[in-house]
């Protein structure tokens, strides 16, 4: 079984407001059609009233150490997944154009390859979603998984998930 983690713990200082509250619903709607058994949303700097503690197959967890970095948030999400979860799909709360097909594609590649880390790529550049096998959960550093080399899975045809850092990055439909 595959679980999903949505990293939504950051302070959103470049955006100037808790962008997670604006974008998370869109990300969850897209993730809900992907082949994952459960979804864990990791909050930190901001309260996320858009997600109840438990909502369908979505659970909200709080990362008290979110300021340590994305790895701390990821570790909180991984710890919250059910014991039968074999791997976690990791997505960002500020990627409102996430393609459920990209999630399915990286999961398929993970199953086929047995790699510990598989990531979508767009124009040859590593992006999200990524899949992290349970065997690699124990040593996630505070800075996250940026330094680890994943198996890349081209997802150019599906479109990048987006990366809303500042207001100008916000898709028109969400303004």
Assess the beta-strand content as a share of residues.
25-35%
Order of the strands making up the biggest sheet = 3-4-2-1-5-7-6-8
CATH C-level category:
Alpha Beta
- Nearest-angstrom radius of gyration? 15 Å
Number of DSSP strand runs: 8
Would you identify the CATH H-level superfamily? Spore Coat Polysaccharide Biosynthesis Protein SpsA, Chain A
Span between termini: 36 Å
User: Would you identify the CATH architecture?
Assistant: Alpha-Beta Complex
| Class of secondary structure makeup | alpha/beta
Helical element count?
3
Global morphology: globular
Low-confidence stretches: none
Quaternary status:
single chain
Topology-level CATH name? Spore Coat Polysaccharide Biosynthesis Protein SpsA, Chain A
Number of domains: 1
**Helical fraction:** 10-25%
Roughly what is the average pLDDT, rounded to an integer?
A: 92
Q: Describe the main β-sheet briefly.
A: 8 strands, mixed
Q: What is the ordering of alpha helices and beta strands? A: EHEEEHEHEEE
Explain what the structure shows:
There is one protein chain. By secondary structure, the protein is of the alpha/beta class. It has a single domain, classed as Spore Coat Polysaccharide Biosynthesis Protein SpsA, Chain A (Alpha-Beta Complex), CATH 3.90.550. 22% of the residues lie in helices and 26% in strands. It has 3 helices and 8 strands; from the N terminus they run βαβββαβαβββ. It has helices spanning 19-31, 70-80, 100-113, and strands spanning 2-8, 38-43, 54-55, 58-62, 87-92, 117-122, 125-133, 151-154. The chain is globular. It starts with a strand and ends in a 21-residue tail after the last strand. The relative contact order is 0.20.
């Amino acid at each position: 079984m595959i679980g999903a983690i949505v990293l939504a713990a950051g302070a959103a200082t470049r955006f100037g407001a808790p962008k997670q509250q604006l974008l998370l619903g869109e990300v969850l709607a897209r993730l809900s059609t992907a082949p994952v058994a459960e979804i864990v949303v990791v909050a930190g700097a901001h309260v996320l009233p858009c997600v109840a503690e438990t909502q369908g197959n979505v659970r909200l967890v709080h990362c008290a150490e979110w300021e340590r970095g994305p790895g701390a948030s990821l570790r909180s999400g991984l710890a919250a997944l059910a014991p039968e979860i074999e791997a976690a799909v990791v997505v960002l709360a500020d990627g409102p154009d996430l393609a459920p097909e990209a999630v399915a594609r990286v999961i398929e590649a993970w199953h086929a390859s047995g790699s510990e880390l598989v990531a979508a790529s767009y124009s040859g550049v590593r992006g999200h979603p990524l899949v992290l096998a349970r065997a690699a959960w124990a040593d996630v550093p505070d800075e996250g998984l940026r330094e680890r080399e994943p198996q890349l899975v081209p997802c150019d045809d599906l479109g990048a998930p987006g990366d809303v850092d500042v207001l100008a990055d916000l898709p028109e439909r969400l303004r």
